[in-house]
UniProtKB/TrEMBL annotation:
Gene3D superfamilies for the chain: Cupredoxins - blue copper proteins (2.60.40.420)
Keywords recorded for this protein, A-Z: Membrane, Transmembrane, Transmembrane helix
Name the record gives this protein: Cytochrome oxidase subunit II copper A binding domain-containing protein
InterPro entries: CcO_II-like_C (IPR002429), Cupredoxin (IPR008972)
UniProt KW Transmembrane helix keyword: yes
Pfam families (UniProt xref): COX2 (PF00116)
Residue intervals passing through the bilayer: 6-27
Length: 116
């Protein structure tokens, strides 16, 4: 009878240990949000080039210097005025554009997001 109790305790301890290990590993996968502040002004962004890694959690905050600007990254289906948040899910180079018409140079107002 004591042999059954011993092995039952061993199984319980191993089960708890596996649960603790899995919980800690899942917690480590939750990365902090990487925040970028972009100044938007008539016909430009500063910075206009951002480099991130696939899987990163991203928050882009747009500070407008003059009129309302925004950001549109069509290939990633991301669009917003003051802020956008997303997880970088695919690698490549993606052009972003201002999504609010701001005058003659509006079509030239763009930046580049590179996801490695």
């Amino acid at each position: 009878m004591s042999g059954k109790i011993f092995w039952s305790i061993i199984v319980i301890v191993i089960t708890i240990a596996i649960g603790v290990i899995l919980t800690n590993n899942f917690g480590r996968q939750s990365k902090e949000v990487k925040e970028f502040k972009i100044r938007a002004f008539k016909y430009g962004f500063e910075p206009n080039d951002i480099l991130i890694k696939k899987g990163d959690k991203i928050k882009i905050i747009i500070n407008n210097s003059d009129i309302l600007h925004g950001i549109n990254i069509p290939d990633l289906e991301i669009r917003g005025n003051d802020m956008v948040e997303f997880i970088a899910s695919k690698q490549g180079q993606f052009i972003w554009y201002c999504n609010n018409y701001c005058g003659e140079g509006h079509g030239r107002m763009q930046g580049k997001l590179t996801i490695e």
